[in-house]
Amino acid sequence: MNIRFFALASASVLALGVVGAQAADLTYEPAPVAAAAPAAFNWTGFYLGVHAGAAITDFDYSSPDNDFPGFSDDNTGFLGGVQAGYNWQFDNIVVGLQTDFAYTSAKVSLNGFDGEGLEQKLEWLGSTTARIGYAFDNLLVYGKGGVAYGQSKLELSAIGLSADDSKWHTGWTAGVGAEYAFTQNITGLVEYNYVDLGSQDYFNGAVSSDLTSNVIKAGLNYKF
Fold first, then answer.
1. Which keywords describe this protein according to UniProt (predicted)?
2. 13 within some domain
3. Looking at the DSSP assignment, which residues form a beta bridge with residue 95?
4. pLDDT value of position 73
């Protein structure tokens, strides 16, 4: 009886030891957590930026009184300035408003054989436009259109004398572009715009000047 009891007790202790050892070998490993997908870029918000490029400008002249035949000249000048705007995004559609203002160096100089000369410079160029585009996450392609304006100075010289007159031109603009978000705050853009600034009369109507320009530019925006 004692031998049988001793054998049963020994077997029980041995079984408990084996089970305990196996349990000690088990370690708890939590299930891996799936990494959250990066949030899609949202274009809604206010932004400020800078841009630079080229203004290929055509200067057309005529005389309201037909004192001389019409003529034209063109020039490619540097363009650089700032822009500000606000976008609203609805699913993949992005609409917005933007105003930009830029310095330009586009000018023409015409000299006659008798010492007469003409020089005209497009000094500033700006626009206020509406934009509408389609967003492929952080890539936005868009079209735009609106009002364009700029200041131009025309200088005439003859027999050693010169005079100048400055006018503001207003007209319209339309263009296309693409903008890419490098981060949640920094975006870059490339853009083409056709600008028609209309005609203005200089020197009390002696000369009429019509200005159009093809603007190609690249820029950076900071989105708030």
1. Cell outer membrane, Membrane, Signal
2. no
3. 88, 132
4. 87
